[in-house]
Design brief:
Helix content is 31%, strand content 24%. The protein is α/β, with parallel strands linked by helices.
Length: 237
């Protein structure tokens, strides 16, 4: 579960400080939630709060169990580090067996030989596959996904979706996506952000009708209709 206790936050977004939450109190029990709102531009900041990637100005967020990083967020899968180095880093952070983690990722991605090369030389599809494959290594209690779940008809998508559905059994999913069909397929309730508040609504169809998913400004500027990128600096906590 995720517990928000008197959370007030005004993070910087789009060059200015934005009011995000005002004394928000909410218990998010085990379940599958579509993050919806009239302002998807602020979903990134909401995800930061839910994942404890950034502390709020007042109040606190508490987790029962482990919560993932913001899966699908672009930024971390780049630079001179190799995929092997990142696998070792994540394995150490989450106390995983390095060999088992490497085997999982290598079995999923299309070209395992890429893992030994600097990520700055990887094609986009390799970065996308790697970021989603690595997210299945830790046994998270809560999976938070920001962006589209893998959807292109290929071997990686079939294998990843099968493993992901296994991982979700008895666990929580919070999905922020502009793809309405994915929200309908994977979620059962709406996690609604509106007027500096968060609330849960049971009728997902009604939620999607009232708050139709769309690309945020940050999404639409990428020109990428793929299924995501990676991690931002500081996400892996």
């Amino acid at each position: 579960m995720i517990y928000l206790n008197g959370v007030t936050d005004e993070p910087y977004a789009f060059g200015n400080r934005q009011p995000l939450l005002a004394n928000a109190n909410l218990d998010i029990p085990v379940g599958r939630y579509a993050l919806l709102s009239p302002v998807p531009e602020m979903h990134r900041q909401i995800v930061d709060v839910l994942c404890c990637l950034r502390p709020p100005r007042r109040g606190f967020v508490r987790h029962d169990g482990t919560v993932s990083w913001a899966i699908g967020r672009q930024g971390f899968i780049r630079g001179k580090a190799t995929g092997l180095a990142v696998i070792e880093f994540v394995s150490e952070m989450y106390e995983l067996d390095v060999d088992a983690t490497f085997e999982l990722v290598a079995d999923l991605v299309t070209d395992p030989k890429t893992l030994a090369k600097p990520m700055e030389h990887w094609p986009l599809y390799a970065r996308q596959e790697f970021s989603f494959a690595l997210a299945l290594a830790p046994a998270f209690d809560v999976y938070v996904i920001e962006g589209a779940i893998p959807f292109e008809p290929c071997r990686f998508t079939r294998l990843w979706l099968a493993l992901f559905e296994e991982r979700l059994i008895g666990r929580t999913l919070i999905l922020s996506s502009y793809r309405q069909n994915q929200l309908a397929d994977y979620c059962l309730k709406g996690l609604i952000y509106e007027r500096s508040e968060l609330r849960i609504e049971d009728d997902l169809d009604q939620c999607i009708s009232k708050y139709p998913p769309r690309r945020s400004r940050s999404d639409s500027g990428t020109g990428d209709d793929g299924f995501g990128g990676g991690f931002d600096d500081g996400q892996l906590i």
